[in-house]
Structure formats: structure tokens, C-alpha cells
């Protein structure tokens, strides 16, 4: 399958982003279930991962130290496999794909956090996905002190990224917010410092205003 031209598909591509501890995971199942209740076929998947090759790359990426450009290349290798095996076939079938992270995470973590040049990431993005972009990206955002607290409460063992410094996460968060400012029609910022219910209501509002799908009955 070639990705250089914009693929024409009838499905919807949603991605969910945020720094570690931002709380996005708490909303993924609800979002998938609410869309299913609306009669949609939903594929819930994640990056890095989502395929057999991708999950093996995830193991390495989350647990082994490596050169920062190797890390970036492997993220895109996993992404290419994910697109070819899972995302594009589902979009062609007309399904809704929800991916727990996608390319904005590379701009934020490898670009903002690690300092890989934006231009190199852009070249890989064009190679791997052409001009395919999510229809909607929900960016869960909150002050880093709260994210760190949630992370400490929720996890027995932290992976390689979760153990990163405060500065790393400040830069990652700033890069996410910069992406949102550059693509305001695609990326909706969700203030996840609020209660679960209030955060979920913002998700429903974003889906309604951007995709015209009303999930408020499931709040
Ligand atoms: P995450 O999505 O937080 O999963 P879990 O909730 O199971 O910990 O973990 C994925 C990690 O990978 C996260 O720390 C961000 C990182 N990551 C990148 O650095 N670059 C990327 O392009 C992607 C997709 C993820």
C-alpha cells in the first residue's frame, strides 16, 4: 500500500496524547464504548505497538537505553507497521481507529524531550505516513506536578520514559502545546487536572464539535 498520496478512506482516525501521568488511559475505554454504542466499529490500539513487530519494538523502546536517533527511527518503524497492518486497513473499512499516541508523541518526546530536530522528524513523518493525519487528536494536559503525583500513585514500576527528569517532561509538555497551537483544528486540549467526570465531559464536547458525534448520553 502506498502512502505518498492522501489515502481516501471512509473511517475516522482519532489519537490520544499527553505526558505520562496526564490520565488519558482512564478515558480510552469510555470513548471506545460510547462510539460503539453509536453503532461504530472501533479499533482501539496503541503506539509504540499495536502489531506483533510493534509490540516487540515497544519492549525495546520502553526498557532499553539507546541513541536518541535510533529511538526516533524505531518509533517510526513501529508506526509504519502499525499503519500498514492495522490503521489503514481499518480506515479503509470505514471503522473508527483510536490510537493511544501517534506522531505528536514523537514531536513531543523525541523532539521536545530529547532534542531531535523537528526537521528530521518531519522527514520521517512524510516518509512513513505521507499526508495522513488524525481527524481529531485529544491532548490531555495538566500541570506537571499533578502528572508526577498520578504517576507515582498508579505504577509499581516506571518505564524508561516515566523515569525521565522534570525538565524532560517540561520540554515534552511544551512541545505538545506548541503542536496544538500549530494545528488548532485537529488538536483539542483537554484540561485533565479536573475530575474524571469533568474531563470526560470535555472529551465528549470535543468529539461533538469536531466530528459531530454526540456522546453526551453516555456521560
Ligand atoms: P504510554 O502510552 O504512556 O503507555 P503506558 O500508559 O502503558 O505507560 O507509554 C508509551 C511511552 O512511549 C510514553 O512514555 C511515551 C513514549 N513515546 C515516545 O517517546 N515517542 C512516541 O512516538 C510514542 C508513540 C511514544
Helix content: 40-55%
Q: Roughly how many Å apart are the termini?
A: 39 Å
Largest sheet: 5 strands, parallel
CATH topology annotation: Rossmann fold
User: How many H/I helical runs?
Assistant: 8
Number of separate domains: 1
User: Biggest sheet: strands side by side, in what order?
Assistant: 2-3-1-4-5
Radius of gyration: 17 Å
Write a structural description.
This protein is of the alpha/beta class and 219 residues long. It has a single domain, classed as P-loop containing nucleotide triphosphate hydrolases (Rossmann fold), CATH 3.40.50.300. Helices cover 54% and strands 13% of the residues. It contains 8 helices and 5 strands, in the order βαβααβααβααβα. The chain has a 5-stranded parallel sheet, sandwiched between helices. Helix 2 runs antiparallel to helix 3 (68-93) and helix 3 (68-93) packs parallel to helix 5. It is globular. The chain starts with 11 loop residues before the first strand and ends in an 8-residue tail after the last helix. The relative contact order is 0.20. The model is unreliable at 1-5 (pLDDT under 50). Bound molecules: thymidine-5'-diphosphate. Thymidine-5'-diphosphate (TYD) binds at residues 20, 25, 47-48, 62, 75, 100-101, 105-106, 109-110, 161.
Amino acid at each position: 500500500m502506498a502512502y505518498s498520496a492522501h489515502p481516501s478512506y471512509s473511517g475516522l482516525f482519532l489519537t490520544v496524547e499527553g505526558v505520562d501521568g496526564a490520565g488519558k488511559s482512564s478515558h480510552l475505554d469510555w470513548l471506545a464504548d460510547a462510539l460503539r454504542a453509536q453503532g461504530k466499529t472501533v479499533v482501539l490500539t496503541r503506539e509504540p505497538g499495536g502489531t506483533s513487530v510493534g509490540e516487540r519494538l515497544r519492549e525495546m523502546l520502553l526498557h532499553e537505553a539507546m541513541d536518541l536517533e535510533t529511538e526516533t527511527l524505531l518509533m517510526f518503524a513501529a508506526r509504519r507497521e502499525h499503519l500498514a497492518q492495522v490503521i489503514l486497513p481499518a480506515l479503509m473499512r470505514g471503522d473508527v481507529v483510536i490510537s493511544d499516541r501517534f506522531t505528536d508523541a514523537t514531536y513531543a518526546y523525541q523532539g521536545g524531550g530529547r532534542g531531535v530536530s523537528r526537521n528530521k522528524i518531519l522527514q520521517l513523518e512524510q516518509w512513513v505516513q505521507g499526508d495522513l493525519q488524525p481527524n481529531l487528536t485529544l491532548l490531555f494536559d495538566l500541570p506537571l506536578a499533578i502528572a508526577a503525583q498520578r504517576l507515582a500513585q498508579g505504577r509499581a514500576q516506571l518505564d524508561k520514559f516515566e523515569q525521565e527528569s522534570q525538565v524532560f517532561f517540561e520540554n515534552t509538555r511544551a512541545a505538545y502545546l506548541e503542536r496544538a497551537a500549530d494545528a488548532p483544528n485537529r488538536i483539542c486540549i483537554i484540561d485533565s487536572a479536573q475530575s474524571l467526570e469533568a474531563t470526560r465531559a470535555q472529551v465528549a464536547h470535543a468529539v461533538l464539535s469536531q466530528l459531530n458525534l454526540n456522546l453526551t448520553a453516555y456521560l
